[in-house]
Specification:
Elements: H1 9-15, H2 23-56, H3 63-79, H4 89-106, H5 110-117, H6 120-123, H7 131-166, H8 168-191, H9 198-205, H10 208-221, H11 229-249
Helix pairs in contact: 2-7, 3-7, 4-7, 5-7, 7-10, 8-11, 9-11, 10-11
Length: 254
């Protein structure tokens, strides 16, 4: 037929309908993606710690990681004593860190590698022996510090991840307060004859994902000690404001 259109592979792919996932498959797909993101975040956190140890603060060594871990535990013990999800948030976070450390380092044998590279003959300033044995001892000494830094960075990562999980009710509450405030403002705007601006609604909607994901990215990747309130509260307030603008400028009548 003269009117027939020859479809190339590129045109067939572009014309393919989007895949519609059911609620169960969408949940499984989302959880799998979240788990992969957490694993990549852990490796990224370890790489950042190694970069800080080798380039930014080489004089501190892995002691910087240990001080960071002590500071994070201190924040938990001082200011995070209550939670809606657990009666003992500090113990919950510390147990999570110990459990992940046991799985990643003890069961895989990395603890034995750390103990082997930390033997006294490898930590001496000028080990005796041939040139090759001296170089090998130096490599073991460097590997020992980086392995300890990785282990401590994993515990810091787990502590911060636990804090973010325990702070979920804060974001839920901020979203609810913002939605209620926006609904009230919308009704007042309707009764006063105000105009509805759908463009502001869509603009505010585009920031919801950032308000929910940026706390996880910023807090988990932060290279120095920082109080979790300086991350959680600003982003929770931003989420509440965005939700309020969305509810205020929503163009459909309830």
């Amino acid at each position: 037929m003269a009117d027939a259109v020859i479809q190339t592979p590129a045109s067939r792919n572009s014309a393919a309908p989007p895949v519609n996932r059911g609620p169960v498959s969408a949940l499984v797909y989302g959880l799998l993606g979240f788990a992969i993101w957490l694993v990549l975040g852990l490796f990224g956190n370890i790489l950042i710690e190694w970069l800080c140890m080798g380039v930014l603060w080489p004089e501190q060594g892995y002691s910087r990681s240990e001080k960071l871990l002590e500071a994070e535990i201190g924040y938990l013990e001082a200011d995070l004593q209550d939670s809606l999800l657990t009666d003992q948030p500090t113990r919950f976070a510390v147990d999570m860190a110990k459990q992940l450390n046991r799985v990643l380092f003890e069961k895989t044998g990395l603890v034995k590698a750390i103990a082997f590279t930390g033997q006294p003959q490898y930590q001496q300033a000028k080990p005796q022996g041939t040139r090759f044995s001296q170089l090998l001892a130096q490599l073991y000494s460097i590997a020992h510090g980086y392995l300890i830094a990785a282990m401590v960075a994993t515990q810091v990562y787990t502590l911060r991840l636990s804090v973010l999980c325990l702070s979920t009710p804060v974001f839920v509450l901020a979203g609810l307060v913002g939605a209620i405030d926006g609904i009230v403002q919308r009704d007042l705007n309707r009764w006063q004859g105000g105009r509805e601006l759908g463009q502001r609604y869509h603009l505010a909607k585009s920031f919801v994902g950032s308000a929910l994901t940026l706390p996880w990215i910023v807090y988990l990747a932060w290279p120095t000690n920082i109080h979790p309130y300086f991350i959680i509260l600003p982003f929770a307030g931003f989420l509440g404001w965005v939700t309020s603008v969305m509810a205020t400028r929503f163009k459909k009548y309830f």
